[in-house]
Each structure stands twice: as C-alpha cells, then as structure tokens.
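Write out a record, focusing on structure:
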Amino acid sequence: MKNKNLIGLILSAALFVVGFVLHGNVSLYFNLSGLLIVCGGTFSATLISFKFEQLRIVSKVLRAAYRKPIMKETDIINILIDLSIRSRMEGILSLQDKENETTILFLRRALGCLVDGYKIDQIRDILNTEMYFFRLRREDSERVLRSIADYLPAFGIVGSVVGLITMLGGIGDTSIILQAIPIALTSTLYGLIFSNFFFLPFASNIKERTNQELLLQKIIMEGVISINSELNPVILKTKLESFLTPSDREVQLVSYAKIKERFNIERELKREEKNRDAEETE
C-alpha cells in the first residue's frame, strides 16, 4: 500500500507540474521576493505561536508517520492470541519474556500491567488514560500543522499587497511595474501551494495514523484484559475480530441449516401450520 501511494504521488505531482509547464514560461513562477515574504512571515508567526520544543516534536511525528509502518490489526490479534495460549499453558508470568521482545510501546505497557498483577479495572483505567493523552498529543501536532497551513495563504496575500503597493508607487515607470507584478501574483501562489500541497496533507496523514494507532491500542487493551480474565483463546479470537472489517476476518458464517437446527425453526413453522389448520377446521 505504501508503494502504491508513492507511485500515485509521483504521477499526480507530475501532472500538477505539467499544468504549469504546458503553456507557459517556467521562470515566471519563480520569484525570490515573494518566496521570502511567504516563508519568512510564516516561519516567524509559527515561532511566535509555538515553542521550539513543540515544533521539534511535530517534526519527529511527521518523520515517523512517513518512515515507520504501522502493524496490521491482524498481526496484533495473532500476537494476543499467542500470548493468551502461552498464559494458559505456562502461567501469566511467562509473558514477561514476551514483554521485552515487543517493539510496540503500548503493548509493552499493557503487558507490564498484566505481569505486575494489576486488577482488570486498574489495567483498563491506566490504558484508557494512556490512550487519552496519546490522542491529545497527536491532536496538538495536527493543530500546529493546520495553523501553519492557515498562515501561508495569509502571508501570500501580504506579498500580493506589497507587490501592489510597489506597483502604485511606480506609476509612470514601466520597469518598476514589471518587477512588482510577479511579487503580487507569485506570493499568493506560493501560499496556496505550500498550504494545500504540503501542510494540510501532513495534518491529515497524522490524523489518519492516529486513528489507526488508537484502533490498535483498543484491540490491545481488550486482548490484555481478556487474557487476564483467562478467556478461552477461541472466544478471544472471535471477540478481537469484531474490530476488523468483514473482508479482513477469517470467520466463516454459520449456515442457515445450522441456524434452523439450533432454533428449531422448521419445527415451529410446522407447529404453526398445524394450529392454523386446526382453527380453520373448527
């Protein structure tokens, strides 16, 4: 899926660039003054709005979002099923070895609570708190990116205003007007492109990744609590597969024949028919 996204990105970006090149002079779209106004103004507003430490965290989240793949839900379920079988066969303390091997921090946290003998309510409360603040931290990163995306078009308009002022000041001098027009037009272009082509998609990517990771964390929480309750691994598998889409499940639907047999549907229908016939006869 990641390779498909990369191929689609390259093709769509190529179409986007071709739209600029097809019937125009490429050099007209480059203006250093407009670029400096947009980038410098946006960077300044960002530093005024947010702490540098927070911006560093956002950059780390962005790098992780595009470099580190997320485990699939089916892989997490298989890990939890394996842990459930191990705990029933070897005891709950055998999970401590598995805890040190797991790379997912939330799963390690959950297994740590399990190994330390916390009660079910305590485990659920701790993991819910972990999920809540994880979501808050990710929402902060998303908010920073969306704020930057809002700043960019605004400073694009600032660049346009600077260009218009220069044009009005150079009335009667054609050379000044020709120098000011690119600043007025390209500044708005830069602000819109940087905002809609980069920072808004960055924010959307973080939001999507956060939702996927929260789903994995919910699966882990329910799985660990079920392991602590010594739930049968088969029942646990059926329970955790409820988080998956129907296409990702390995569950085979019960046939209508078994449903009829279980609930005695045919017998009930025949009994109702006999009752109706008896009523009509009377």
The longest helix spans residues 174-228. DSSP finds eleven helices and no strands in the chain.
